[in-house]
Design goal:
44% of the residues lie in helices and 21% in strands. It has 242 residues and is of the alpha/beta class. Helix 1 (2-49) packs across helix 3. The protein is globular and about 45 Å long. The chain starts with a helix and ends in a 22-residue tail after the last strand. The relative contact order is 0.12.
Length: 242
């Protein structure tokens, strides 16, 4: 009887120890998630208010910040009903495999890794050998060399118009610009479209990707942008303080 009681006590102690370890692991995981989410929010807000060339300098000096941003971005994307990058991949998979593509603000270069076209992937920091680290307002590509230019959730900062000047420079006449953007950032869709058109572009199509995002397809109609370029305004995403 005594031996049975001892065995039961030992088993109970082992169960309690196992439960404590499990709770500690869950607590640490929860703390890590909160740290990543908090870092992502702070960095995201920084992206919205900082010009791209300044942001590049910050990330070059602190490359680990982009790793934190990507981790937070992935966590957030898990909650989305649709992922814009996957929609763009679907379009390219149905397109001519000989097209040449520039992915501006590519993150982990998901597009380049999944499509047949030659994709030039650009971002502030090269998280993968196939990525070229640069400010996307100045990419190392020749004039009129691209068939498609992509901005997938990458129109961030107060110098967005410079991204479109560069996109128009590298895009062939008749080439396309695909834009995926958060619905809440676009104050007026007609105004947004009008401002993009001033860069020598015409609207091919516009559609909603669920209630979260908008997708735009523009085509290059002219090598000469309008003399009076319109500033492109997108609302920054600021998070409620917790």
């Amino acid at each position: 009887m005594r031996n049975n009681r001892r065995r039961k006590r030992r088993a109970n102690l082992e169960d309690e120890e196992s439960s404590s370890c499990s709770t500690a692991k869950k607590t640490k995981s929860s703390d890590d998630d909160r740290l990543v989410a908090s870092s992502f929010r702070l960095l995201n807000e920084k992206f919205y208010v900082t010009k791209s060339f300044e942001m590049q300098k910050i990330l070059e000096q602190n490359p680990e910040l982009l790793d934190l941003y990507i981790m937070g971005f992935k966590k957030q994307a898990e909650q989305w009903p649709v992922k814009p990058v996957e929609e763009i991949i679907k379009i390219l998979m149905k397109s001519d495999p000989n097209l040449e593509v520039a992915d501006m603000g590519c993150g982990e270069a998901m597009i380049a890794k999944q499509v047949k076209q030659k994709v030039h992937s650009f971002d502030f920091i090269a998280l993968d050998p196939i990525i070229t680290a640069c400010d996307i307002s100045h990419v190392p590509l020749p004039n009129t060399s691209m068939d498609v230019v992509i901005f997938c959730l990458s129109l961030m900062g107060p110098n967005i118009h410079e991204f479109f000047i560069e996109a128009s420079r590298i895009l062939k006449l008749g080439g396309h610009i695909y834009i995926a953007e958060v619905e809440s950032r676009i104050v007026s869709i007609p105004q947004f479209i009008r401002s993009i058109k001033t860069f020598g572009l015409g609207l091919v199509s516009h559609r909603e990707l669920s209630s979260y995002f908008h997708f735009f397809d523009f085509v290059k109609l002219s090598d000469q942008p309008n003399k009076d370029l319109v500033e492109i305004f997108l609302k920054p995403c600021f998070y409620k303080k917790r």
